[in-house]
Amino acid sequence: MQSFRPRSTTLTNTSINPNLWTIEEVSFDPQYLHHQETIFTIGNGYIATRGAFEEGYHTERRATFAHGVFDAARNYNTELVNMPDWLPLSVCLDRERFSLERGTLEKYRRTLDLRNGLLSRTVLWQSPNGRCATMVFERFVSLADPHALYLRCHVIPEFAGPVEFRAALDGHSDNLGVVHLRWIDQGERDGVVYLRTRTRQSQIDIAYAMRVETHGGRETKHDFWDVDDRPSVCIQVDARPGEEIVFDKQVSVFTSRDVPAEHVVSTAVHHSNAAPHWQEALEQNNTAWANEWKRSDVELEGDDESQRAMRFNLFQLLIVAPRHDSRVNIGAKTLSGFGYHGHTFWDTEIFMLPFFTYTAPPVARNLLDYRYARLDAARAKARANGCEGAQFPWESADTGEEVTPPWYPDPSNRTKLIRIWTGDIEIHISADVAYAVRQYWQVTGDDEWFIDRGAEVILDTGKFYASRAEWDPDRQRYEYNDVIGPDEYHDHVNNNAYTNKMAQWNLQTALEVLEWLRAEAPAKAEELTQRLDLSPERLALWRDVIEKIYFPITPSGVIEQFDGYFKLKPVFMAALEPRDMSTQQLFGYEGSQERQAIKQPDVLMLLYLLRDQFDPEIIRINYEFYAPRTDHTYGSSLGPAISSIIACWIGKNGEAYEHFKRAEFADLCDVRGNAGDGIHGASAGGAWQAVVFGFAGLRLTPEGCTTHACLPDGWSRLAFRFFRYGEEQQVNVNRERQD
Amino acid sequence: MQSFRPRSTTLTNTSINPNLWTIEEVSFDPQYLHHQETIFTIGNGYIATRGAFEEGYHTERRATFAHGVFDAARNYNTELVNMPDWLPLSVCLDRERFSLERGTLEKYRRTLDLRNGLLSRTVLWQSPNGRCATMVFERFVSLADPHALYLRCHVIPEFAGPVEFRAALDGHSDNLGVVHLRWIDQGERDGVVYLRTRTRQSQIDIAYAMRVETHGGRETKHDFWDVDDRPSVCIQVDARPGEEIVFDKQVSVFTSRDVPAEHVVSTAVHHSNAAPHWQEALEQNNTAWANEWKRSDVELEGDDESQRAMRFNLFQLLIVAPRHDSRVNIGAKTLSGFGYHGHTFWDTEIFMLPFFTYTAPPVARNLLDYRYARLDAARAKARANGCEGAQFPWESADTGEEVTPPWYPDPSNRTKLIRIWTGDIEIHISADVAYAVRQYWQVTGDDEWFIDRGAEVILDTGKFYASRAEWDPDRQRYEYNDVIGPDEYHDHVNNNAYTNKMAQWNLQTALEVLEWLRAEAPAKAEELTQRLDLSPERLALWRDVIEKIYFPITPSGVIEQFDGYFKLKPVFMAALEPRDMSTQQLFGYEGSQERQAIKQPDVLMLLYLLRDQFDPEIIRINYEFYAPRTDHTYGSSLGPAISSIIACWIGKNGEAYEHFKRAEFADLCDVRGNAGDGIHGASAGGAWQAVVFGFAGLRLTPEGCTTHACLPDGWSRLAFRFFRYGEEQQVNVNRERQD
Which candidate in B138, B488, B560, B655 is catalytic? Predict the structure, then answer.
């Protein structure tokens, strides 16, 4: 197996700090600009901002995203809107404007403190005319108050003369060239500057309010520049050598998703006026973060790099966790980049949700409520495909309709388009959602929510799978043909093992749920039976599909990924090394269909999710079979964490650790070269699962929890917490305690 | 035949003014905003600006376009860039900002003076707090200096208090939501404010420089608001009731197409500093316009509506005529809207060019030079299609590559796309270009240009048609199969009459040109013979194609539009009335293919262009046959002018006038409901041709010119000028003189 090699350039750049809670960048290299913008994203579960610079940079991908603020532009599917920019702050030293594109950068250091989400940058800059100053830029978005954003700039000049600060709110954001915002209004009230914009199609009003102040030095000018769509405040201070000047910018954000549209401005202005000053706000933020980490932290002793990367991954999940909103979900690229347009995939339910289900059940419930509230859209999709029940979309945004782009242009031929099939023929996501619902219920014991909402999801997705099943009278079996499994290198396949088995699981679980409801909540059982038409005939069909679904295991124990997979051309991954592209890119779209190389190991994913249904030996056999056929390096970022867990289960600690690092460093080291598009949320969630269900070997049983640790070499201790039935549990594995 | 009915609402709005040189709007109705923005476009052949308001309006389609400034955005074909906005001017009356969206509009009138391109708007507005003022906004883009733009605002307040003017340059323009510009720099030099932006893909630098001043009142504030990408000047004046304040804004524009990129700012700043003030600039502009009209005007006495509309159409052509640039062409929607992305079609050569060829040969030559310079791109297109010679693209932008969008999304189904075939299988445009080249040569006698450039176009397009011809050995004839003719309701047709005959004409003309060259410019003939490989074998093939090209005429004299047209389902246009959509929309894409209803009369277009090759009786028979099958009202805007001319030729004066009005009022009355997308340049050019070649019946012969007038009822006089062999000719037809 190819070993994991981080991109050394980036690793060096994001250097190792003795502090296990910080990510550092010790020099500025525009070559890594987009990657570092992703890495230095900060957020609070309501809004998040990429690590773009206050003063701007010409090749930047500056962006702020807020959950639920979607818009559909001309000829585009709906996408998460790049919100107005709250960062703009220009500093002029004696009339020369600070910029990394001019002058001399004598010192540079950027630090993200994972403990509290404080992003700091220290520069020592000399202007083209020779004016020097140390400048420290700090920012955080408050975890204590989702609407409060803070930015501070310290300037310590080495000259005497004017220092000017220009702080703005800017409504001209675009999504890689596509405009979603329209200017509505702006002004100044009670010393607070506001900007109101509106998304063009979805008509969401967005108000920002800004309050600025300076400390130190003597203010010689304080102007409001009332320029449309970029209201600005310009403050000039007389500076003296060595005397620090501090500039504070506080911004409050509200949208018409929070308050009625006619109140967005007044709410934001009032909020900004009442918002605490920097120090107090930072302390409140720190307290909120301390509470988060108390629940969420994973301690890995003996492996500093992994420890820091682990926290980085958890930080990425925590900053996009919707704590106060059950109408939103997390996109595959979180709120940290333009990748996948902010759309939600199964990445949430299978990869990110377990972390929340175990450590922050209210967040998990919000995420599941998002799906529950979109059952009608899922029903419409099932109907459109001639089925019954609820079929969740492969990509989901605000409405829950299918938003997978069906085509993308072929760069090599102007008249050609490449078809994206997942939105049409992928059907496993409904079972994935149902799986997450049952997992939430099992872990939390939240019967009230499950009766009220969760059960309906499982029953109606079950209904979908029964209606979608194809009966083969010759072979006397049910099949699912013409689908795509998780491994997207092969589409239009028949009887994808993952899909067939998860459908069976969904139907079986639906029957159990209905039985449970009849016993525990008979009125609800009756209501759902009526509303979803769960007639005896329908349930008989479910049982028949469960019994006769096609899911073969070869005598040797291998589960064929789909009909005919074994007959595809073999592939020898080692012979393809070294490579810097996926096997799909290497073999082409058609060539990949003909070969056994897979983007991610469907069968292992299935065995992971339904471990209890399989003999450990089957798991081992399938790992041995599929691991060498998987594109671990440039295939799906979802695969490595799962491979790591299975490797743990079968005692291959070394391989488990290799896979784990691929997941853990996916973004920090930009393993796939696309971290600039945003954080791989699934990989972050997968890394947590690898530690908890792999290295710690946590299993929940009706009687309690068990662990079965297999720590990587060098790890002396592994500790984390989670909640079972509302009770906090602590896991603390020391090397000497390992079995 | 259905008679022409203008949309009364718009006609009323654009009311009839006794002055035959003005277009007026007497009330403001946002319902017609986009249409009126198009109508009130001003320009000077270098740049043009839609009639958007200085202060903005939320549903506007504000745009400024400059010839040649194209850019290709992500997933889009290249398009003409919406340039930075030079109009922004906000007026605040006692701190209340003037807007048509607030307060009370007590008077409103907008006037476009076609004599000099001066656009004026007079409003009497009362602010929400009761402050009243008369405001007059005037603007023009100088025809005397293509880089100089002028805007003036008069305020006559009815109150005492501050009046504030905020003038800006704004780089945030987008093309219906797609961003092409990136901010580069801005500042203030010598009292002039500048803004520099750059197109994102094509990397064209654009610099605007702005100079402002006030007259009357006492200035109490004069600030420069240095806000990124919208540098602004804010001037406050103490106003007294009844005392006029005048605010002047001059803007200079240069791009890196004009001067080296590093000089765009300094050139613009210097130009603005040196630019004459309003009155002097206006006088220079008026002189330049007077010269244009002297050459170009068409006088129609006895029909004021047509007279004004005629001048409006000519104005539209004059404001986009590239007088100083041979690297650009005119888009189908001129520079007045987003329609067709600023792309050039055959609309130029067949519809707009004759006006320039006859009245402004240097402009015509510039337009033809654009094609000549793109011969290599046309050759590449021919090669890509397995042919030889030069095949011009159906849609052309900066490079001359094919830029027809191959697909557009089906609004009714997210997975479906509708194929646009013109970029692939339409082949008549090469002959259209060749036709325009020969027409220019014939009318101007510009042998030097023809030898140097024009001949090569005709020879190489001829080469294309010979290589593209398909020999049918059974029938012993050449065919062009699987094409689209001008009538786009039928695609993938065989032996389109227009295409086949124009190809034959092109080949015949190529042979004649080569013979002429051999006699008149033997060195050039030799060079082209070598370079284009015009071997005896090739010329023999040309003669063979000319002789054996399939072009049947039925015994009754009707020319079938394409193979099988006669067998299509008949259509009775009268039975479809009243309708408010095209027959294609009515019958659907497939249904239109099966029916005889046509978008424009291919055969009549052919008979128009090659009149000398056909018996007048054939022309009459085909008019009688095709007129009732043509969608005159909602089909192509190219058709009516041609139908009008043919109707003149066969003595159907009444019908000729009906068709003429459809062409002449296409935009002024928004006959097709899409004038908001921009001026139909071909219709404007067609209207001129209808008057000159239809009503006046002008024909050029080697011996001279003849007219054969058939004036519509009520027209007492028709007069215009043109140039033949560099000599000005005057045509003056009086009713009593008609034969």
Answer: B488
Q: Are B532 and B510 in contact (CB under 8 A)?
A: no
d(CA B666, CA B6): 9
Joined together, the tokens standing for residue A389 give: 């029940």
* A488 among known catalytic residues: yes
Residue pair B213/B90 in contact by the 8 Å Cβ criterion: no
Contact B298, B292 (CB under 8 A): no
* Chain segment B31-70, per-residue pLDDT in tens: 999 999 999 999 999 999 999 999 999 999 999 999 999 9
Sign, CA dihedral A249-A255-A258-A262, equals positive
How many CB atoms are located within 10 Å of the residue B203 CB?
11
CB contacts < 8 A, A to B, total: 89
Q: How far is CA A231 from CA A137, A226, B233, B662, in A?
A: 21, 5, 14, 48
Task: Extract the runs of DSSP E, i.e. beta strands, from A309-421.
Answer: 407-409, 417-419
Residues 6+ positions from B526 with CB-CB distance below 8 Å: none
Average pLDDT of the segment spanning B305-315: 97
The Cα of B177 is separated from the nearest Cα of chain A by a number of Å equal to 5
Tell me the residues of chain A between 217 and 246 that have a Cβ less than 8 Å away from chain B.
223, 225-230, 232, 234
Nearest to B641 by CA among B586, B604, B595: B604
- How far is the C-alpha of B29 from the C-alpha of B35, rounded, in Å? 11
Task: Please give the structure tokens belonging to residue B593.
Answer: 């293919």
Per residue in A436-461, pLDDT (tens digit) is: 999 999 999 999 999 999 999 999 99
Q: HSE (CB half, 13 Å, CA atoms) of A441?
A: 22
Return the residue in B57, B60, B90, B172 with the most chain A beta carbons within 10 A, the one to mutate for interface testing. B172
CB contact under 8 A, A166 and B226: yes
- pLDDT over 60 at A517, yes or no: yes
Residue to mutate among B188, B226, B381, with most A CBs inside 10 A, is: B226
CB A679 within 8 A of CB A21: no
**CA B653 – CA A160 distance, rounded (Å):** 85
**Contact assignment for A179 to B179 by CB distance below 8 Å:** yes
Task: Give dist(CA B426, CA B486) in Å, integer.
Answer: 8
Taking the model in full, what pTM does it have? Answer: 0.93
A192-232 per-position pLDDT tens digit? 999 999 999 999 999 999 999 999 989 999 999 999 999 99
**pLDDT higher than threshold 60 for residue A322:** yes
DSSP code of B182?
E
Rounded distance between C-alpha atoms, residue A695 and residue A683, angstroms:
16
Closest by Cα among B559, B661, B571 to B602? B559
A-chain CB neighbours of B172 within 8 Å are 172, 229
Which of A178, A232, A415 is nearest residue B177 as measured by Cβ atoms?
A: A178
Q: Out of B56, B229, B407, name the one closest to residue A417 (CB).
A: B407
User: What is the Cα–Cα distance from A123 to A93, expressed in whole angstroms?
Assistant: 14
pLDDT tens per residue across span A676-690:
999 999 999 999 999
Hey, is the C-beta of B402 within 8 angstroms of any chain A C-beta? yes
